[in-house]
Amino acid sequence: MAGLESMVAEEVKPIDREKTCPLLLRVFCSTGRHNSPGDYARGLVPQNELQIYTWMDATLRELTGLVKEVNPETRRKGTYFDFAVVFPDARSPTYRMREIGVTCSGQRGGDDNKTLAQVKFQIGNYLDISITPSNRMPPPMRRPQNYVNNRPY
């Protein structure tokens, strides 16, 4: 069948964290919602910045643990972390946001082992995390979408 492409899981090469220099990951957390892509316009960023030195093989579960270390109120079981990558739009002077996964404190999930490399994170992008406390409604479940501009083709 011509025109059909097979989906092949990319194999991630292990990174020797002793020999590889970490990258600076600029993370912006917000309770109950993501920051707006407009908050990243004109060289500005939201004020709630967390700076993490990590590697491209860092998983969403590992990043969740690092956020929980500095935000004690997020340590409660059942707290949801909804991750999105914020990146510059190649066609305009604005930023775009693409959701990449959800983790939950105290529970295993399908997105826990996703790495920055697997979600096509590029050095220089930002990470935006919507934190939903355990006493609120969890984030809505989304259908997986193709990578290109979040539009299914």
From TrEMBL:
Alphabetical list of InterPro entries matching this protein: Hist_deAcase_cplx_SAP18, SAP18, SAP18_sf
Task: Answer whether the UniProt record assigns the keyword Heme to this protein.
Answer: no
Sorted alphabetically, which keywords does the UniProt record give? Repressor, Transcription, Transcription regulation
A Pfam short name: SAP18
Give GO cellular component annotations, separated by semicolons.
nucleus
Report the GO molecular function annotations. Answer: transcription corepressor activity
The protein's job, in short, is:
Involved in the tethering of the SIN3 complex to core histone proteins.
Q: Which family does the similarity line name?
A: Belongs to the SAP18 family.
Q: Name the chain's protein.
A: Histone deacetylase complex subunit SAP18
- The encoding gene is LOC106121967
